[in-house]
Amino acid sequence: AHFIDNDWKLHKKILNFYAISSHKCDDIVLVLGKCLEEWGLVSKLYNIMVDNAANNDTACNAFIGDLKRHCHFLFSGEEFLHVRCVAHILNLVVWDGLKVVGKSINRVRAAVKFIKQSPSRLQRFHECVVAEKIDSKASLSLDVPTRWNSTFKMLSTALVYEHVFTKYSKRD
């Protein structure tokens, strides 16, 4: 929950964790309603932020319908209650953009994976780093395909070691 207190100070709190038996609309609506009721927040709700999954859209629409039937006042009005997570949307946009350079990313990923899979290869790579006089403590990292920032980190680190990869490929 994000809220502003009487002194206009922004607060961010995790209210609770609930186990949801499934990601079906009815289960999401039930757990969301239960959490908001327990905390006395139903009448104070401004918006619900979710990713773009279809079940979340369905659940939010159903939940808003329930709120309209049981509450006479929606703080933000119905049109602003369901908000899609900008970070999730940005992640999807970036991944679409990364598809354009997918072959290059896959080549870097394969090279990093190849080196990291073997202690002896990693040792040879470090020897090439020393030989190339690269002054960096950054270690090679594989990305997590669902997190573009990890792909950025993998590519940034690989770029630092670009000449090392070339030297390594000639040596190996």
UniProtKB/TrEMBL annotation:
Q: Which domain of life is it from?
A: Eukaryota
**Family annotation (SUPFAM superfamilies):** Ribonuclease H-like (SSF53098)
**PANTHER family per UniProt:** ZINC FINGER BED DOMAIN-CONTAINING PROTEIN 4, ZINC FINGER BED DOMAIN-CONTAINING PROTEIN RICESLEEPER 2-LIKE
The name this protein carries in UniProt is hAT-like transposase RNase-H fold domain-containing protein
Give the species.
Opuntia streptacantha (Prickly pear cactus)
Name the lineage: Eukaryota, Viridiplantae, Streptophyta, Embryophyta, Tracheophyta
